[in-house]
Every structure is written in structure tokens, then in C-alpha cells.
Amino acid sequence: MTGTRPVVPPAQIPHRDLLQLQVLPDENQIRADIERLRKEKNAVILAHNYQRPEVQGIADFVGDSLGLSRQAAKTDAEVIVFAGVHFMAETAAILNPQKVVLLPDLRAGCSLADTLTAQGVRDWKARNPGGLVVTYVNTTADVKAESDYCCTSGNAVQVVQSLPEDTPVLFAPDRFLAAHVIRETGRQMDVWDGACHVHEAIRPEDIQGQQAAYPGAELLIHPECGCSTRVLSAIPGLQLYSTEGMIHRAQASDAQTFIVVTETGMVTRLEKDVPGKTFVPVSRTACCEYMKMITLENIRDSLQNLQPRVTVPGAIRERALVPIERMLAIG
Ligand code: SF4
């Protein structure tokens, strides 16, 4: 890291027991209810790649943060059900102030977003007048309102390459994605010391164990992973992939089996989009409790009641829209 190291509050980690899967005896009825309500309410269901398989199965669109932001920006639906986490629903609300944005369980937060506050960004700007702030889309609306650009893992390199040279840059909050961007662009930046607890916990030993179990399998590693720096130094030339990049790579590769080094939900998306190939998770514990809080049941209930809603105050929304629109314009 360069520059002053900010003080980062501890991430809020939910209890693992929230992961326990529910058995739904009336699952077919719930699916039928969702179908009916989706039409009645003129709703669209957007699901992140890390959602449960059955939630991905009923979604109108499944994708990464950038893809979901694009869908949210162009939908004609009056109601957006966000099967994801809170900052994603906030982004949809910023892009669609006139629409109803639902997050079926408001506890669905993000340990990475929790590491960065708007005050932390303001403090960096006070120390670096004229500096530019690039924040990963995994941030609250308050933080986006203080940012110059948003990015996702899919376009972070492009966003940083578009910045004027010789300008101080803060890249926040994910230090592993920042390391990837610095490697790819050669740009020196101040880096916020944040991380996602799921990706940070993935160890090189997890990868080595799966490589021993699946000899010849190709690695698909996300740049947020805590292991990525160590793995890259051990395997020169290894590429990192955003979640959408993983799909393109698996389609283009001659390999038949892939070790998926990110949150386990990505396996569901890859199996659907790249049929006939085998995808194994790097570790069964690489599982985001927040993402798994969204269920068929609470999607049905939120459609029925049009609650809980996510809204963003007008003054924050206007400022947060600027870096989001810059991100969408860059690619
Ligand atoms: S996987 Fe990590 S970055 Fe993604 S929502 Fe969960 S805690 Fe946040």
C-alpha cells in the first residue's frame, strides 16, 4: 500500500447458522405464486451469480454486479426484486428512483461494503486535494456519493486506465482487486484495506487440494480472492477472471473440468451457461451467508406485500448516480 493506511472498522460477519437450508414442502406452489405475482405487479427479478440455485432458476436475469446494474437501468418493469445484497438494491434504486425496488431480506448485507464509510473517503480526499476516488460497486450509496468512479471486477482495469496520469487515486474497498488492477495497469494507487470475508478465506491449499482431486482441471480464479496473489506468483501467466469472464473462458477453453475459485453459487451459473463441462467449487465453505438469505419464500412474500423496499434519499442519489453512470459508460 502507498499513502496513509486508513483505519478500517471490523467487518460484520453473520452467523453461519443462517446458512441452514430450508425444506419447502410447497415449493411448486411458491414458484406458481411468484409467476402470478410477477405478472400482476409488472415485476422483474434480478439475481446475482452467487444466489441459491432455485433463486437463479426463477430469475429473469442472472449476472454480476455490472450486468445487474445494466438490467436495472433499462428495465420497463415497475417493480424490481433484487435477489442479491443491499448495496445492489441501492444501486438499482439510484438508477430507478421512480420504481419500487425490493430486497426480500434486509439483513442481506456485505462484509466488504461494511469496511468503507463515506467519512473514510472524505478523510482521504482532504489529505489528497484533487485526487480521484474509484470505488468497487460493493459500497453503500453514501460512499458512492463521495466517489468519482464506480467499477466492478469486470471493468476495474478499464476504469483505472481511463484516469488522467499524475493524479492521486484511491482504490477502495477491496485490496485484492486493487492488487490485480495495479498488476494489470502498473498504476500506483492508494488502496483501502478491505476484503470480502468469503474470498479472503480461500487459501492456496484449497486450490491445491482440488487440483489433486481433479488432475488437469483448469483454474478459474476471481481477483477478489485472498489467495490470488500467492497463486499468481506460483503459476506465472495465470489469468484472473471476473464472474462473467469465467463464463467466456469456460466456453472458449478446450478443458472439460474447471475449479471455480470464488463463491460457490457461481458453479450454478457456469453449469447452466456452459453445459457439458464439469465445474467444481474450490471449497464448499466459500459460501456467502448474505447472498443465501434470499429464498423463494421471501421473494414470494416481498412480491405479495411490495416490501421490504430499498430507497435512497434524493441528495445522496443525485451524487451517487454520477460515478455509477461513468462506470456504465466505460464498459
Ligand atoms: S460474496 Fe463477499 S463481496 Fe459478495 S456480497 Fe458476499 S460478502 Fe459481499
UniProtKB/TrEMBL annotation:
Any Pfam family the entry gives: NadA
EC number: 2.5.1.72
Involved pathway(s): Cofactor biosynthesis; NAD(+) biosynthesis; quinolinate from iminoaspartate: step 1/1
Cofactor note: Binds 1 [4Fe-4S] cluster per subunit.
Domain of life where this protein originates: Bacteria
Named cofactor requirement(s): [4Fe-4S] cluster
Protein name: Quinolinate synthase
